[in-house]
Amino acid sequence: MTFTFEAAVARRKFDVSFSLSQGETLAVLGPNGAGKSTLLNLISGSLSPDSGHAELDGDVLFSAGSGRKRVWQPPHTRGISLLAQQALLFPHLTVLDNVAFGPTSSGVKKRTAHDAARKWLAEVDAAQFERRKPAQLSGGQAQRIAVARALAAEPKLLLLDEPMAALDIDVAPALRRTLRRVLENCTAIIVTHDILDAYTLADRVIVIDNGRIVEDGPTRRVFEQPRDPFTANLAGLNVLSGIRTPLGLRTADGVELAIGAGAAGAVGSECSAAIRPSDVRVSTSPPPDGANALPATITDLEPRGDLVRVRALNFAADLPPALVADLDVSIGTAVWFTFDPGSAIIYSANR
Ligand SMILES: Nc1ncnc2c1ncn2[C@@H]1O[C@H](COP(=O)(O)OP(=O)(O)OP(=O)(O)O)[C@@H](O)[C@H]1O
User: Fold this and answer.
1) Are residues 188 and 322 in the same domain?
2) Which atom of ligand 1 is nearest to 30's Cα?
3) In the prediction, which pLDDT does 266 show?
4) Is residue 19 in some structural domain?
5) CB 17, CB 39: distance < 8 Å
6) Nearest atom (ligand 1) to Cα of 193
7) CB contact set of 68 (below 8 Å; sequence gap of 6+)
8) What ipTM does this complex have?
C-alpha cells in the first residue's frame, strides 16, 4: 500500500506533494494558516484541488489539471477515516452502535458489526462503555470511542486532526498511549501543534508553511537538525545558517563561528548549526577574545519554568532569573550571545 499526493489550490496558495509507505505515520506541523487543514480536506474529499493527483493503494482519489482525465472520488468510497478534534459521535446511538456504524453501513450484518465494534472498543480500553450514550461520556472517553469508530471502518489511511487538542491536559497522555499502540498497525497522517505527538506517534514529519513543505524527514532528524525557523522554535533550538568555513560557519552578517561537532558539507557550501538556549551565555559587553559572539538586541524576556528566556530576533538564551537581574538587561538592551564550539552541532543545509 502506498499513498501518493500532489495538489495545488491557488486561492489558498497551497502546493504540496509527498508520498507515504505502508504502515508509516506522518506528522504534519506548521504555523496557523499554513495549510494543514487544507491538506486533510483534500485527502478526505471535502475540498477539490485546482490541479493534482492522489492515489491510495492504486485507487485514484482525485485527478485534475491540464492533460489529466478528471477523476473525483466521493469521501465515503476513499477508504479513509478522519478523527477530528471533537469526537462527533451520533448522540442517539449507544457507544456500541456508534462504533459499529461504519461496518453496518458498508453492508456487514449487525451481529458481525457488533463483534468488530467490541474488538475495537477493547483495543482502545473502552469495552465497559458499550451501552452508554455519548452524553454519558467524558471528553477523553468520547475521543477513545471516536478512535474505535474510525478504526472499525478498517481504513487504508487514517487521518487525525489534532486529536488531543480538545482534551484536558491530564487525559491526553492516556489517549496518546492508546494511539501509539493502534497506529503501529496503521498508515496514518496526524496534524498536530504538539512536538510530543510528533515524537511519540510519528515516524516522519513534514512541516508546512505558506502552503509549501519546508521540512520533510525522519522525526528525530527534523527536530535535531531543523532547517526552518518554525521547526527550530518548536524543537526549542537556536538555528544559525551560513556558509561552511574550515572552523565552522560564517553567518550572512559575516560573523565567524567555531563549531566543534557534527558533519557538514564542503567548505563554501550552505550549512546550519543548532544550539540549545540553555548552552548560550549572555554578556552586556563584547567578550574579550571575540570568539563565537553574536551581537543582538533583546526583544523579549519570558519565564520558562525556573529559567528566563532572553530572546533576540532569531536567537535565545535560557538563564537563571538571578543572572538576568545581575546583568540588568531588559527589552532593547544590546547584548552578545556566546556559546562554546562543543555545544553546537553543524549540519549541511541540503541534508
Ligand atoms: N474556507 C476557506 N476559504 C478560503 N480560504 C481558506 C479557507 N480555509 C482556509 N483558507 C485559507 O487557506 C490557507 C490555509 O489554511 P488552513 O486552514 O489549511 O491552515 P492550517 O494550517 O490548518 O491552520 P490552523 O493551524 O490555524 O488550523 C490560509 O491562508 C487560510 O486563510
Assistant:
1) no
2) 21
3) 85
4) yes
5) no
6) 25
7) 51, 53
8) 0.95
CB-ligand 1 contact for 85 (6 Å cutoff): no
Do 204 and 275 lie in one domain? The reply is: no
Q: For residue 248, what are the domain limits?
A: 237-348
Residues 173 and 271 in one domain: no
Locus of grid cell 501518493: 4
Q: What is the CATH number of the domain that holds 40?
A: 3.40.50.300
Q: Phi and psi dihedrals of 9, rounded to 5? A: -130, 105
Q: Is residue 232 part of a domain?
A: no
162 alpha carbon – ligand 1 mean position (Å): 15
Cβ of 194 closer than 6 Å to ligand 1, yes or no, is: no
For 145-165, what is each residue's pLDDT tens digit?
999 999 999 999 999 999 888
Does residue 134's CB lie within 6 angstroms of at least one atom of ligand 1? no
pLDDT of res. 105: 86
Model confidence over 188-209: pLDDT tens digits?
999 999 988 999 999 999 999 9
Q: Tens digit of pLDDT for each residue in 204-223?
A: 999 999 999 999 999 999 99
**Does 35 contact ligand 1 (Cβ within 6 A)?**
yes
Name residues whose C-beta falls within 8 Å of residue 12's C-beta, 6 or more positions apart in sequence.
35, 38, 211
Give nearest CA residue, ligand 1 atom 31.
33
